[in-house]
Amino acid sequence: MYKWALFILFCLACTLSVGLLLFNLPAKQTAVAEEPAIVIPDKSVDTKAAESVYKSNCVSCHGDQLQGSLGPNLTTIGGSVSKEKIYKQIIKGGNGMPGFEGKLTEDEIVNLSNWLAAKK
């Protein structure tokens, strides 16, 4: 009797396994945390301040004429990337670039983002 009960339990487990494999359960969905939209204020660009921040923090990777070396060419970055994306890249870094959050002030980052976004 015990062998029959185990055999039936084994058959049910196999049937359940085959059923799950044939009728794929939906993939587990992960919740994606949406980042709040970044809004960069349209301030007038202080070109001297932006150039000063650029020279002291960015010139080693992006070149003295924004031509790029280790980092990408920034001479026309504003034509292909929004100022919000530029801001986010400066803050968080990525793709080999360090993040500058905490190293630069908010005003410096906003001014630099607006300055670079004007490069079209």
From TrEMBL:
A Pfam family name for this chain? Cytochrome_CBB3
What InterPro entries does the entry give? Cyt_c-like_dom, Cyt_c-like_dom_sf, Cyt_C_IC, Cytochrome_c550/c551-like
Tell me the superkingdom of the source. Bacteria
GO molecular function list? electron transfer activity; heme binding; iron ion binding
The protein, known as: Cytochrome c-550
Q: Which organism is it from?
A: Paenibacillus baekrokdamisoli
Q: Which gene encodes it?
A: cccA
